[in-house]
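Repro:
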Amino acid sequence: MTSKPHPSISPSLLVPMVSFNSPPMGSSDYMILRPEKAGLLDILHLLIFKPKLSDCKFVDMSLSHDIKLSDTPSYIVALSLFIQKLFYLIEYPLRLFGYAVEFPFNLATTNGGVFSLIQKLMTGSVVIPEEGTLNWWTFLGHIDPRLDLTKSSSLISYLPQLGAINTMEGVNLLELLLMASKAAYENEAYVKNAVTNHWKMNFVGFYSCWNKYTETYGTQLFIFTDTSEDANLIIVSFRGTGFWAARDYITDFDVSWLSMGSMGRAHVGFMKALGLQDETDYIKGWPKYYTGEADKVGAYYVVREQLQILIQQHPNAQIIFTGHSMGASLSSIYPAILSLHEETDILNRMAGVLNSGRSRPGDETFASYMDALLKTKYSKRLTYRYDIIVRVPFDDDVFRYKHYGECIYCKNWYEGEVITEEPNKNYFDSTYFPDMYYNQYKDFVTSLTLPKTQGRDYKETLASLIYRSLGFLIPGVPCHSPRDYLNAIRLGKVTISDKEIV
């Protein structure tokens, strides 16, 4: 189902209020893959004969990069094209399959469990769940239905810069951000209930924003503050890759890029999800003021307006951008667009960016730019084991997609360390596969014993066990689960400079 836009879009988004601040100058270089123009024979031809990309009908690129990209590893482009075409092919069946999977899970939970459902079937009193309501959870919601915070001291307070952030008494900031990232996959009713009734915080708004390239309101996010008055925190949480959303996977595995001038190259798909208007020219692509249809506003402009309001309402509040999976990548690129438009009022109020399971958002120049932009703030990402999504798009000798910021690498649920880059950076290094399969088996077995050692809150759901089983085919897939990220932070220890932080 396609979400509808949030109704409260201010006219201030559509009309310039001050003069335009020119962005940093630079060429609008780009390389855009067009999987809809590539057949299987084209992909095989690319692998075997390795033609110049500019000679391929399924690649659009600026002439200045024709020579530089002529020696691009063909298998990377071929793999990206094949995966994108596969998900285009199964888009509609995948959506139907997703509904068929989620409906029985929601039917059971809405009616109090399987045994209660059987009793209600016999008495004719079954409640039918409806999408978009409080009783409808995504499959990821069934993998990890936990919403209550543990109210423990936070690991994050021991990391550089983060100790200065004030939260509500007893609230684990990192756990809160992970919960917010997990909740972002759900509908508005679910999210509002989580914020107000479980976390006891102030719900600001839920937004489904327009992507002109997919022609859907497919970018979902919500904003909340820790208190309704004089808040300390303003949190923006972007939704990640939808479990049954083929176009989200297409975005994740696309290696297309657009130069942002002196900022370097950024991932085109993620920028489209934020509201990019032109995929071949970053200046036209990111006008400071949106001038299109009022009901088709991109996420960047919607969030910016809300933040401009909130920093006036809460003069002491700091802003945190977060998300999981694709939502992590959106939260990582968002400050760059603020910088492009010289939104200093918002940037000065940023505490930083912290996300989990993040795909690489840009190249090495972009990473360096973001490190410099956030050098006085915090910039951290969480990676659990061999999470496959963290390792795409590839960091190869030509594209050079890179992560920025520090990585809190969780080796398992009990041990972590702060590093600059995850092991097995492009996933397909065969030397890591024995360890990947071993850890998949270890996680599956350990998950069954956690309720006895850690309490009932760690009991695996049926959906989680099904998802973990995928790892026996493709190790690294279950490592992407928000459940494992939450377990790692709740149960783990982080080593920094040979000092153990409990």
